[in-house]
Amino acid sequence: MLVRxxxxxxxxxxxxxxxxxxxxxxxxxxxxSHICALKDSTVTMRCTYTYxxxxxxxxxxxxxxxxxxxxxxxxxxxxxxxxxxxxxLGDKQQNCTIRLxxxxxxxxxxxxxxxxxxxxDGSWIGKSGVNLSVTDLQVESPERVTEGDSVTLxxxxxxxxxxxxxxxxxxxxxxxxxxxxxNNELLLQSVRREDSGRYSCAVDGHTxxxxxxxxxxxxxxxxxxxxxxxxxxxxEGDSVTLxxxSDSNPPAEIKWFKGRTFVGSGxxxxxxxxxxxxxxxxxxxxxxxHGEKYSDTVTLNVMYPPRSVSVLISGxxxxxEGDSVTLxxxSDSNPPAxxxxxxxxxxxVGSGxxxxxxxxxxxxxxxxxxxxxxxHGEKYSDTVTLNVMYPPRNVSVLMSGxxxxxEGDSVTLxxxSDSNPPAxxxxxxxxxxxxxxxSGQSFSALQSGRFYCQAHNQHGSQRSAAVTVTGEAxxxxxxxxxxxxxxxxxxxxxxLFQFIMLLVGM
Length: 506
Fold this sequence. Notes:
The chain is mainly β. It has 2 helices and 44 strands. Strands 12, 14, 15, 18, 19, 21 and 24 form a 7-stranded mixed beta sheet that branches. It has a 5-stranded antiparallel beta sheet with strand order 1-2-4-7-6, with no helix packed on it.
């Protein structure tokens, strides 16, 4: 059989008993006769044999069955499953020790040594054999524990290992640097969330590591926070996502609040086409079976262009010439608008939130509006009208005709004035007389003299200059009518003669 070099430091477990088989001078002894080995370890099966003198050893080999195949016992070194792992360490005199490496669970079996001499019937089998049990390490752990509990993990196998065995523990495939083992136990006192993970164990000096077992440490929500996307400036119309970040086990139920009002649930709270009404303080609440916790508040500050722009007139009552008037541009925007323009008609007349007019005059009457601007847009207010009141001024009298009174007729005088509101109270006076001779916008003069009007509104009054109405033409006209009456018949005869002459000439 093929002899190979043995790997260093073979592990031999538990000597249970030493049993020898002999008949006269024929014998095979196994030490130990029962071996418990870890999966993937190397096992040494120690063996000695004797035979009568005068015999020469021709062949030695190991086998795992006492049944012949094709008239022969199968040589283990010729079995493909063993040939690369089996090393014969003995000789052809009395040592029959072998070494089996990388043992598997399938290697659990009883093994026998057989030797053959040069004499007829000079062969022997050690039928007591070596019983090999291959075990796998298993971690025994509770599936779920709560933070603060004490937990014991056990590294177990199907057969007892030596008391001298030293156990190594791994979490997430990394060896635990702090030794907290007691024999084959790992004690976690006051377990923390950081203790969650995949645990496995091994025996010092051996490469085999047990299958991993998940330790699940449950705990109430902690480290609750809210992230905002996008993280920059939020403008009205944007889509905004709030994400509740919660560390808890099991995963927590999430609820969202704006102020004290519940607005949604789920880890993500999305606002599509955000408006200024969505501005405010938000927080999330994380809750599982072990407790609940609120996040700190985050503020959504939604930017938007000016809107609801209006003009407020200080002293919204009657504005009288000479008053001081202030126009205030009221604007709803975020950030607040700092750029304002004032327009009268189509002309820019000022800037700033407030437009002041000291000692206002009628020339300041008209329609005003303001324009509010921030970095997100601009908007005009509706127009407001400044209607400046003032007493009558530039009062004058307008005469119809020449101002000469003709018999049977009169001269009409009109009182012209500039005032706001229009002067509807007009009085007429004849110069040097204290009593009014008439009222109303127009006055009919029936006699000669100097006349003037006085216009009144609620803000004051003013009199016009006097105009002269003469009666001289009236006297001359009477004389002219008398002469026509005296010579009327003569004139008529002359007129009739001229008419007859005209007819004859035709």
